[in-house]
Design brief:
The complex is a heterodimer of chains A (121) and B (518).
Chain A lengths: L2 E5 L3 H13 L3 E5 L2 H11 L3 E5 L7 H11 L4 E6 L9 H7 L4 E4 L4 H12 L1
Parallel strand pairs in A: 1-2, 1-3, 3-4, 4-5
Helix pairs in contact in A: 2-3
Chain B lengths: L2 H11 L3 E6 L4 E4 L1 H7 L3 H4 L10 H15 L7 E7 L5 E12 L5 E10 L1 H23 L3 E6 L4 E5 L2 H6 L3 H6 L3 H4 L3 H16 L4 E8 L5 E13 L2 E11 L1 H54 L5 H27 L7 E4 H15 L4 E7 L5 E4 L1 H18 L5 E10 L17 E8 L29 H11 L3 E6 L5 E8 L6 H13 L1
Parallel strand pairs in B: 12-14
Antiparallel strand pairs in B: 1-2, 1-5, 3-4, 4-5, 6-7, 6-10, 8-9, 9-10, 11-13, 14-15, 15-17, 16-17
The chains are: A alpha/beta (121), B alpha+beta (518).
Amino acid sequence: MARILVIDDEAQVRNVLRQMLEKAGHEVVEAPEGAAGLQVHREHLADLIITDILMPGKEGIETILALRKSVPKVKIIAISGGGRMNKVDLLSVAQEFGAARTLAKPFTRQELLAVVQEVLA
Amino acid sequence: MEKDDFYRDLFENAHDGLALVKLDHTIAHINRSMEHLLGWSRKELIGKSDRTVLTPAGIALAQEREQRLRNGEKLSPTVEHEFLRKDGSTIWVEGRVRFLKAQDGTLIGFKGIYHDISERKAAQEALQQSQQRYQTLVHSLDGIVWELDAATFQFTFVSPQAEQLLGYPMEQWLSEPDFWSNHIHPEDREWARRFCRTRVEEQRNHHFDYRMLAADGRVIWLHDQVNVIVKNGQVTTLCGVMTDISERKRAEAERRRWEAQLLQAQKMEALGILAGGVAHGFNNILTAMLGYSELIEDDLPENSTAHRNLQEILQAGQRAKDLIQQLLAFSRPSQGGKRRVRLQSIVEETLSFLHASLPKTVTLQQDLACPTETIFADPAQIQQVVLNLCVNGAQAMGKRPGSLTVELRRIEGENARGHMTSGMSPGPRLRLSVRDTGIGIEPEILPRIFDPFFTTKPVGKGTGLGLAIVHAVVTDHGGTVTVDSQLGYGATFHVSFPLQQTADPRETAILKSIKEAL
């Protein structure tokens, strides 16, 4: 089982992901945005980071780049509710910048756990 | 007073100029008025030749008359010519000339009675000049100058431009009863006649734009400026100028079309941004709602009412998710998913699984003629376009039997001109046409059919996003979408994409920038 860091500005989303992951036997730590996420990661050294993209403070792509730089081998899953910024698909960009997999919100527990398992494998 | 004195006095004081001239042209006598007319005194003139006071034209006229007299012709006693005055100036006169004969009938000379007609001549000349000027003006005007009898509405005059502009001979304009209204465009005839007749009844000048049909069938836009001429309280005549404004009207229509397209593009852009924002927020909310529902599910006995109710929540959530996915079609950039694809393969694939879901009453016909041509596109989105157009077409036919024809053609830039719209690149294109034999589209709603959430389907039967997605996807792919429809005769949607002949520079640039960033 793994230690997973969930970074999302929505407390309800963080909480539901925590419960799903914990029920699957993982340990979960949380952060509401990128900078706090990096801090939590330094303290807890997560095996996997699930990060939202559009967040106040340090947003997802920036967080992924910072993580890639400091801990190149960390596994990242990017999640997003979509939206558009300069006609660029944020999840595609996240993947190009180092996210192992992406998940478009909303996703089912089954989809989440399958992706987590795949990335951790 | 003696008789001789009476005649002398009469001669001397006559208002008109009087002259007696001998056969050898010697002036025998002139009166005071004649002295005044010619500027010579009788002392100076008597005994001199009448050529002294004639201009060369006057001499020629005199010679011609003498010749005709010798030929035995009867001459009109009235002549008009100029006299040469002492000061060298000339004066127009009208004269009555009678020949004088001796008692034996021999011709001995003539007497002439003259009066000044300079003013009349000047007026005539001015009139002639004015007519000349008017004619030049009428001929050079870039329009048809016309005059019409207000009682019969028949033309009494049209300038030569009438024939040039509309191709009907002038005689037809002037002789055909009701020529004007006969040749107005059928769509304008009633209102134009009514408008003009009402203004005439009100005795008001007016102007209006309408279309006329030229002899060769062309439609000509005219601006008609009408002056109503009233005599004794009655309108007798209408006159005016018709100007060809076809070019201006075409330019206006073109401008309106561009403005509408720009407006549509701006509207879609704004909606895209809005949809993107809404979708992002909703997806986060749905993540929580669906996620918590799934967690609750773990704690509920499978056959309980609460479990069944929860399933309903999950299903509703799924529907909300689908709706958001459609909304995102406006804002979801597809750059990442675009690649060089064979459009025909996508169409064939889509039609193969669509076929099964179409009602039995619909016959699907395929006429695809571009097996190798490629476009730069996101296959999933193109599939969505084909699907939406076909489903829409099938729904337009309702339960009535009908056919759905899907056609794929390569069109060259020139052929595509009819559908050329803003943002469309020139060059060869692939055109996908989906034609149904359904109820057609009412002209009034045509401008709105691509608007998001616009639907003619009953509440709950359509989201109003199908054609909006088609428009958004096609535009995002540098393509255009147009529709031809006549109420009662079905509709044809044409979607065209630029043909991809070589590797897309955008594709190369995006890959390069991502690699550099990494």
